[in-house]
Specification:
By secondary structure, the chain is of the alpha/beta class. The protein is built from 17 helices and 14 strands. The strands form three sheets. The protein has a six-stranded parallel β-sheet with strand order 3-2-1-4-5-6, with helices on both faces. It starts with a strand and ends in a 7-residue tail after the last strand. It binds nicotinamide-adenine-dinucleotide.
């Protein structure tokens, strides 16, 4: 099939490469010329394991190409995927301007009946809104809701082996159903993964999934605070709670608050939608509140260790990405902490295996970002771990002790709690863990 993805970001690029891999001819389009130029030179603008190989193979075999020509791509495609950003507006609602712009372009540029697939995360009612925008197009535009569930860091595997494929479609639209069935058939060879439903249900499913995940994290973060008061250990509690098959073990890790480009904005957008309909989602609201508070937990701990006075302290930060295996720093708890440290007059030296250059663009000269993790720790009054990259899992603690001005380790991901660090001369603090 001939298709295009509009948007070459985390979702658009993975979708384009993933669908090229199963034999389609895919044009991946973005309105950002430097991004398309880099892709044209064979560079991958984001860090995502396995994506470079997937893109290179499909480009080499002639199935995947890149362009900035949105209208030309639409005119040449049977299926148009919308994978543009839907960032939060100041009031929490999803900003749909980019989605509307693509819908307008499809309405005027399509040269034949076209299936327009909404892959961006969009609030309930967007499918209907887009249908309204394209209603007077010369050719019929079939609007489908197909939210994406990939995780950054595992995006390629998630796309190629999805748990489920949610397709929201008008029941009477046989053409769209047939196109989506054919497109996703290669992903359903072992079992049918497509869940067909009304567009509103598909749209809502995405927000409910992300809010459920966020709720688990916020609940465990609250329980971590209780653990610290009562002498319990969140690791032990998590393992025992997660062993219950009704609950499951995923997304139960206490930490510095959830970040990324999806969970925070999607919880807020769900709240906004509910509010518009006169419904108060109390659990979702509490999830968001708890997370905002949790993003300050490491700052409060540092203040505690330095008697409330961080001015002039040299603080090393390991990890800037919102999670490992990505260079995405959007809404990362590390950015919140670093900004707060700077405003309190601390000197921050940071390291991240992949997110350094993205973070440099964010902080400018306010933060020193170094290429070697031990250089960041050199002379530091404290080392704060924010992202559990593998290379931080088992560092050379003796070297750290020698190089740091003061052996204070603040473990925002609880990965060092069982290493006996106190016995080895460190001041060790985690989130809801006892430590030894
Ligand atoms: N990142 C994730 O893990 C993830 C997972 C599932 C769903 N989503 C959702 O997918 C959507 C895209 O997310 P992302 O992380 O890929 O965003 P992104 O910011 O990485 O990429 C969006 C791209 O769209 C381009 N763009 C914006 N307006 C355009 C236009 N009018 N024409 C052409 N290109 C345009 C931008 O230049 C950018 O490259 C969002 O709605 C997001 O919520 C993201």
């Amino acid at each position: 099939m001939r298709l295009c993805t509009i948007g070459a970001g985390y979702v658009g690029l993975v979708t384009a490469a993933g669908l090229a891999e199963t034999g389609n001819r895919v044009l991946c389009v973005d309105s950002d010329p430097p991004k398309i130029e880099r892709l044209g030179r064979g560079e991958i603008p984001i860090y995502e394991p396995g994506l470079g190989e997937l893109v290179a193979r499909n480009v080499a075999q002639g199935r995947l190409s890149f362009s900035t020509d949105v209208r030309g791509a639409i005119a040449a495609s049977e299926i148009v995927f919308v994978a543009v950003g839907t960032p939060p507006r100041a009031d929490g609602a999803a900003d749909l301007r980019a989605v509307d712009a693509v819908a307008d372009a499809v309405a005027s540029a399509a040269t034949s009946p076209t299936v327009l697939v909404l892959k961006s995360t969009v609030p309930v009612g967007t499918n209907a809104r887009v249908r309204h925008i394209v209603r007077e197009a010369t050719h019929r535009i079939h609007v489908v809701s197909n939210p994406e569930f990939l995780k950054e860091g595992d995006a390629v595997a998630d796309f190629l082996h999805p748990d489920r494929i949610v397709v929201g479609i008008d029941k009477a639209d046989e053409h769209a159903r047939d196109c989506m069935s054919r497109l996703y058939h290669p992903f359903c060879l072992d079992r049918d993964r497509i869940l067909w439903m009304e567009p509103a249900s598909a749209e809502l499913t995405k927000y409910v999934s992300n809010t459920m995940l966020a709720m688990r994290v916020s609940f465990m973060n609250e329980i971590a605070g209780l653990c610290e008061r009562v002498g319990a250990d969140i690791h032990d509690v998590r393992k025992a709670v997660g062993a219950d098959t009704r609950i499951g073990a995923e997304y139960l890790y206490a930490g510095p608050g959830y970040g990324g480009s999806c969970l925070p904005k999607d919880v807020q957008a769900l709240l906004y939608t509910a509010n518009e309909h006169g419904i108060e989602l109390e659990l979702a609201a509490a999830t968001d509140r708890v997370n905002r508070r949790q993003k300050g937990v490491l700052l409060r701990k540092l203040e505690h260790h330095f008697d409330g006075f961080l001015h002039g302290r040299r603080i090393a930060v390991w990890g800037l990405a919102f999670k490992p295996r990505t260079d995405d720093v959007r809404e990362s708890p590390a950015l919140t902490l670093v900004d707060a440290l700077i405003s309190e007059g601390a000197q921050v030296v940071a390291h991240d295996p992949e997110a350094g250059s993205v973070a440099r663009a964010h902080f400018g000269s306010r933060v020193e970002i170094v290429d070697d993790a031990y250089d960041a720790a050199s002379g530091a009054d404290a080392l704060v771990l924010l992202t559990e990259w593998r290379q931080y899992q088992s560092p050379d603690f003796e070297r750290l002790k020698d190089t740091m001005a003061r052996p204070l380790l603040l473990d925002g991901r609880n990965i060092w709690s069982t290493y006996g660090l106190r016995k080895r001369g460190f001041v060790y603090d985690g989130i809801g863990v006892q430590g030894t």
